[in-house]
Design goal:
267 residues; mainly alpha; 14 helices
Length: 267
């Protein structure tokens, strides 16, 4: 977050320079190329919509051209991601994520962790509204100031989920199966959204209100819960999990589960 804080400091100075009386063309250009892109003009919005409603080939070429710059802009998040991975490893090793703690320990974490995250989130929303969604301030509040509280809140949610799943029922089993197919479900969500919104599918990009777009989320959740368990009843991995394990291990992994022979089943 230190790198990102330095980036935001630079954007704050660029904002002052671009909006100062007698701002130079270079200062205005620097702002527009940075966080100024968060305030697109009507022409830029129309151009973006047209891009998403074109054929797949043009859209893919556009994204390939942007990958280098996008990768560079995400470098500040690398250390943050590594830290979260280490935290997850610690949670696994301590038994927290595997459900080995007593219920009382999970309850002690649950309310304070979720409460702290909710308060921080509420404060961020209040600041965003009060500042009229000032870009530098919004990113500073959400990505820098709120990041520790987001992590704490995630720990609280994990404790809540573990407590709710103590009694394994049909819904719990389906949620667990969806988690075992997390890679496939993650990529599948992108594929579904792409087919719904982009031009090579239903072409609804830019045509739905925010609440209408949100209605897609529970549909995707239902799809995850419906397909994951029946698939894992028959196969060892989800499709993309199988491909990833095969690549990482250098050989094709057994996909279909072995069925017991009649003699073994009778015994």
């Amino acid at each position: 977050m230190i790198l990102f804080s330095l980036f935001l400091h630079g954007q704050f100075l660029a904002d002052i320079a671009a909006h100062a009386p007698g701002a130079t063309a270079n200062a205005i250009h620097a702002w527009n190329e940075g966080l100024g892109s968060l305030y697109p003009s009507a022409a830029e919005v129309a151009k973006d919509k047209a891009l998403h409603l074109e054929g797949y080939a043009n859209f893919a070429r556009h994204n390939l051209a942007r990958w280098t710059s996008v990768f560079g802009s995400n470098l500040p998040f690398v250390m943050d991601t590594i830290g979260l991975m280490l935290l997850g490893m610690a949670g696994f090793k301590s038994g927290f994520l595997t459900g080995q703690w007593a219920d009382s320990r999970y309850r002690k974490l649950l309310i304070p962790a979720i409460g702290a995250g909710a308060l921080a989130g509420g404060a961020t929303v209040a600041y965003d509204v009060a500042s009229h969604f000032y870009a530098v301030g919004m990113l500073s509040a959400f990505i820098v100031a709120e990041t520790p509280f987001i992590t704490i809140m995630a720990v609280g949610y994990a404790a809540l989920i573990i407590l709710l799943s103590r009694r394994a029922g049909p819904l719990t089993q389906r949620i667990a199966a969806a988690g075992r197919c997390a890679f496939t479900n993650y990529l599948g969500t992108s594929i579904i959204a792409s087919l719904v919104f982009n031009g090579w599918g239903l072409g609804l990009y830019g045509s739905l209100s925010r609440w209408q777009a949100w209605l897609l989320a529970p549909v995707v959740w239902a799809i995850m819960l419906l397909w994951s368990k029946p698939w894992l009843d028959r196969f060892n991995y989800g499709p993309f999990e199988w491909a990833w394990r095969s690549l990482s291990r250098g050989r094709l992994q057994p996909m279909r589960k072995k069925t017991a022979s009649p003699a073994v089943a009778a015994a």
